[in-house]
Amino acid sequence: MPEAVVAITGASGAQYGVRLVDELLGAGWQVSLIITSAGAINLDLECGITPHDIGERDGVTLEDNNNLAARSASGSARFDAYVVCPASGTTVGKIAAGISDNLATRSALGGVEGETQAHCSP
Ligand SMILES: Cc1cc2nc3c(=O)[nH]c(=O)nc-3n(C[C@H](O)[C@H](O)[C@H](O)COP(=O)(O)O)c2cc1C
User: Fold this and answer.
1) Distance from the CA of 12 to the center of ligand 1, in angstroms?
2) What is the Cα 103 distance to its own chain's centre?
3) CA-CA distance, 48 to 116, in Å (whole number)?
4) Contact 75, 66 (CB under 8 A)
5) Within 10 A of 92 (CB to CB), how many other CB atoms are there?
6) Which ligand 1 atom is the nearest neighbour of the CA of 88?
7) Protein residue closest via CA to atom 18 of ligand 1
8) First to last CA, the chain
9) Among 11, 74, 90, 92, which residue's beta carbon has the most beta carbons within 10 A?
10) Is the pTM of this model over 0.90?
């Protein structure tokens, strides 16, 4: 079963992140979901849902963005896709600069170390 890491960060467009998660689940993927604190604010403002609501979907594992020991933080973990959607300028800038100070940024950089492209969708 394919596995994706999806990070919802604090840019406008939370609905695209939710839609992505639902499409992946519908196609039989497992999703490790990371929602930053700013992402949670926009999820509430734009979609009226909480991280817990989306984390309860079958096939979703809701990760703690502060947990740098989560599996997706490891460059040797094997996920089939890493997507940041929506991607805030802050998170994109950190990834571009190699800064991995939370699980969202660390997972994207860990994916690159493992030679899987990380996709950022602003
Ligand atoms: C309602 C709202 C909308 C925002 N929209 C954007 C946006 O479209 N793009 C962006 O880069 N930042 C946006 N921000 C600012 C980010 O949330 C902020 O830079 C935050 O630090 C990003 O943190 P994160 O990357 O850890 O989620 C928005 C903030 C709020 C409260």
Assistant:
1) 7
2) 9
3) 32
4) no
5) 18
6) 11
7) 10
8) 27
9) 11
10) yes
